[in-house]
Amino acid sequence: MRSVSFNSFALVMEPARQGYGLAFVPESLIQRELATGLLERVLPGWSSKIMFVHLMYPSHHEQTANLKEMVTILCKHLEGVFVAKP
């Protein structure tokens, strides 16, 4: 048995999509694959601990319009990726 590790969810999902093993990824990233049956849950009801994500930037810098927009975009995007389940 071989073990492989990646530092990207996109890379983690590819071997699973090709039928080479299991992948532990946020459900929101595989909605299409679950809906089409390309991937399936093998441990329903099991999930990881709640994970906190922090967006950090230097507080001594003035918040420019670009920084504020980036914070807005990242918060909107991450809200859909990291979903707490009851």
| Uncertain segments | none
Task: Report the radius of gyration as a whole number of Å.
Answer: 17 Å
Structural class: mainly alpha
- In whole angstroms, the N-to-C terminal distance is 34 Å
Strand content: under 5%
Query: How much helicity do the residues have?
Result: 25-40%
The tally of beta strands, per DSSP, is 0
The number of helices is 3
Average of pLDDT: 79
Overall shape: elongated
Question: What is the string of helix and strand elements?
Answer: HHH
* Overall structural domain count: 1
How would you sum up the major sheet?
Answer: none
State the gist of this model.
This protein has 86 residues and is mainly α. It is built from three helices and no strands.
Set down the secondary structure blueprint.
Layout: H1 9-17, H2 31-36, H3 65-81
Protein described:
By secondary structure, this protein is mainly α. It has one domain (9-81). It has helices spanning 9-17, 31-36, 65-81. The longest helix is centred in the last third of the chain and has 17 residues, at 65-81. It is elongated, with a radius of gyration of 17 Å.
Which descriptors apply to this entry?
86 residues; mainly alpha; 37% helix; elongated
